[in-house]
Amino acid sequence: MYKNKLSYSGTVILLFLTHLTMLGLVFIRGSVVAPLDFLKLAGAVIGLDIIYLLITLAYKQMTYTLDFMLLGILNISLIFQSCFGGIHLSVKHLISCVMCLAACEAGFLLTRNHEWIRKNKKYIYILILLLFISIIFFTDNQKKWITIGSFSIQPSEFIKPCFILVCAASIVELHEKLKIGFFYLSKDSLILCIVALFIFALQWWCHDLGSLPTFGMIFLCALFCRFCYPKAKISKRIVAIACIAGILILIAAWNFAPEYVQKRLHVDIWADRYGDGYQQCEALIGIAKGGWLGVGAGNGSLYKIFAHDSDIVFATICEEWGLLYASLSVLLILIMLMTVLMNPPKNYYHAMMTAGVTAAFLMQMSLNIFGSCNLIPFTGVTLPFLSTGGSSMMACGFLVGMLKAGQSPLFQHEVMKRKKQKQKQKAAKAAQKSRRVNT
User: Fold this and answer.
1) Is 383 helix (H, G, I), strand (E, B) or coil?
2) 0.85 exceeded by pTM
């Protein structure tokens, strides 16, 4: 017990020191013009640390590792976003960070009981259908956004956690087979394939092909888990057909991709520096300009480029903070994903769920970072937690909550124990009241 308290205190101190060090670098090396703006930023960062840590003390759970790591990443992100174009407090990003923390707790509470999720999976299908309808009928001319006054929502971001929950399955569901022609498939796997086809078709219709690799990686991860579950009999015929189909789909996608995608695949960015290659050229120049330690917070020039705080945020961080800080920030996200290896899921459903979450984060991070560095064609995908965007931050927070649920799940017998304890407590309180009345 003492060791756990010591570990908790040490983690809190480390968290504060990290944020204080970054704020010190902003004050020393940054372009602090108005001290009041810097004080607002420092107050928001330290205040968010204190308030969230006090909230975590109010309830008990098996692990706080992911809570601390998420809080650390979000406040680092808030400092980054508040320095682009000058030192100021980015109130919009602060609100996004708070919503991300709230979404994390919601994801944890809603997905920790795998039996409840499995029994109510039909409501997840209904939610995905509603998101499809909202994208088709309510977004602005295939721009993927629903605009309400000064706020905008991207429904496709919320499909990711829903799709991962659809991909997760228990051993019972995988053993329930249906014979279709010469193949034996589980009903759950067949529904998964249908949902995946609808998602891919919708992304193609929305011209949001940058998100397709993320959904594709989640789907492939789910198929792999379904083929390799304990005592599974893997059909070589199904594996061969799946591989051939995958190759044919990739060839067709490469040859029949829309014109704007073809330009990104074949463009010479330096030959077309002020055209289709403008963003990537400026991103590469910014990374080279920043070097290892950066030019200082608020001293960069990439803030003038479109999507500097979302699609090419890695390059913007590299310019102002240096490749060292940008790499450490990404490494912190990777370590957060690796906590699953330290405290692995206790059941197969949560194992599949956490595998899907990890696959989604890794693919999305790879697309953003490699695209900013011109190692792959530019996709316009956000970098989890570090890019601006309320919808993306909420979806990422919910996914972290799913990771936390995998580490500290809630089983049916635990639910029954808690109900009995509450009943005993109510009975004890009622007995005390009756005694007081009698006396």
Assistant:
1) coil
2) yes
